[in-house]
């Protein structure tokens, strides 16, 4: 039982980190780095909000400002991120920027639950795949995680679908 609790807490922290990394990559690509950081963001392509959809268990992710969702292509990666609303809902996705992209990580904060798809220390949690139709990316799968208010309660799993325009 202790192993499951440690794993649940680790995945919760990973989901939170993925959301934060996605947001920091968004700021980097827009050139919002501190002076002297050396990153001008000149090679990044940024797309915003538009026709974004985020569903968890078939329902729109309430409380997520879809206008805050951005897609940044830089350094061989595609980063999709949103602003967290009151620290409650958030989104971060990292994919490869290949002809057939692969999802590397997903982090969602849903009703206080940190959910993730990731590989950690040789173990994988959750699953995700991406389909591309022109400049629209549809990421589907199952994320696992822990309740941030009670990480010792055990693992939860939720299905998700993220659709974002990334030109």
How many structural domains? 1
Total of DSSP H or I helical runs spanning 4+ residues: 1
If you compute it from the alpha carbons, what radius of gyration comes out, rounded to the nearest whole angstrom? 15 Å
Give the total of beta strands: 12
Task: Provide the low-confidence segments as ranges.
Answer: 1-47
- Compute the average pLDDT: 75
CA(first)-CA(last) distance: 45 Å
The ordered H/E elements are HEEEEEEEEEEEE
Q: Helix- and strand-based class?
A: alpha+beta
Give the helix level as a range of percent.
Answer: 10-25%
Largest sheet: 12 strands, antiparallel
**What portion of residues belong to β-strands?**
35-45%
Inertia-based shape: globular
Would you give an account of this structure?
With 167 residues, the chain is an alpha+beta fold. The chain has one domain (46-165). It is 17% helix and 45% strand. It is built from 1 helix and 12 strands; from the N terminus they run αββββββββββββ. It has one helix spanning 2-29, and strands at residues 45-48, 53-56, 59-60, 70-74, 77-81, 90-96, 103-110, 113-120, 123-125, 127-133, 136-147, 156-165. Strands 1, 2, 3, 4, 5, 6, 7, 8, 9, 10, 11 and 12 form a 12-stranded antiparallel β-sheet that branches. Strand 5 and strand 6 (90-96) form a beta hairpin. The longest helix is centred in the N-terminal third of the chain and has 28 residues, at 2-29. Mean pLDDT is 75; it is low at 1-47. It comes from Mycobacterium adipatum. This is Lipoprotein LpqH. Pfam families: Myco_19_kDa.
């Amino acid at each position: 039982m202790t192993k499951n609790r440690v794993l649940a807490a680790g995945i919760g922290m990973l989901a939170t980190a993925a959301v934060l990394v996605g947001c920091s990559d968004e700021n980097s690509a827009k050139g919002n780095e501190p002076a002297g950081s050396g990153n001008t963001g000149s090679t990044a392509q940024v797309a915003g909000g538009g026709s974004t959809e985020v569903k968890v268990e078939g329902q729109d992710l309430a409380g997520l400002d879809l206008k805050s969702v951005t897609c940044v292509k830089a350094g061989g990666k595609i980063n999709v991120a949103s602003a967290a609303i009151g620290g409650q809902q958030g989104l971060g996705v990292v994919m490869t920027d290949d002809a057939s992209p692969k999802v590397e990580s997903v982090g969602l904060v849903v009703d206080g639950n940190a959910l993730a798809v990731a590989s950690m220390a040789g173990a994988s949690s959750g699953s995700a795949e991406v389909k591309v139709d022109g400049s629209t990316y549809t990421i589907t799968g199952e994320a696992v995680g822990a309740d941030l208010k009670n990480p010792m309660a055990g693992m939860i799993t939720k299905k998700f679908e993220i659709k974002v325009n990334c030109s």
